[in-house]
Specification:
Elements lengths: L5 E5 L3 H9 L4 E5 L3 E2 L5 E4 L11 E6 L4 E6 L2 E3 L2 E5 L10 E7 L6 E3 L1 H6 L9 E2 L2 E5 L4
Antiparallel strand pairs: 1-4, 1-12, 2-5, 3-4, 5-6, 7-8, 8-9, 9-10, 10-11
């Protein structure tokens, strides 16, 4: 990843990443153009044809497949960061509001749907990692 790329940079949740690192089979992997930076934040490249939308996915796995979470194609609009519904059979093309993003500093707060994605491990309203939209330059 270069600092001149346009996209969304998000570490999701440092404690969650730390938990996965301690698991023997814990993994954080990316696909579809997403990248992991040296600080373990995920970079999702901007989709020029869809303003506010970003390509790529991050996959968190562990506990021999019992822990499996994918956050794909984030979208940032009106102070909400949404991802594709990981259970597309329910409503194809549906999106879930994962966190509320404060525009002034990028801090995030977990929504109820986001808490559901993490199976209630984290409560709604919990602080998650900040979101940064990189617009080139020093990203």
């Amino acid at each position: 990843m270069t600092t001149t790329q346009i996209g969304l940079l998000w570490g999701v949740h440092a404690r969650f990443r730390g938990y996965l690192e301690r698991l023997e089979d814990g993994r954080i992997e990316v696909s579809d153009g997403a990248l992991i930076d040296p600080d373990q934040r995920i970079f999702f490249p901007a989709m020029a044809e869809e303003p506010g939308c970003f390509a790529g996915a991050v996959h968190f796995t562990g506990h021999h497949g019992m822990l499996a979470l994918t956050l794909a194609r984030p979208q940032l609009m009106d102070g909400l960061l949404t991802v594709e519904d990981p259970f597309p059979d329910s409503v194809p093309g549906a999106r879930l509001d994962v966190v509320v993003v404060r525009e002034t500093d990028g801090t995030t707060t977990l929504t109820e749907a986001g808490a559901d994605l993490f199976l209630g491990t984290y409560a709604p309203g919990m602080s998650f990692d900040p979101v940064t939209v990189t617009c080139g330059g020093n990203g």
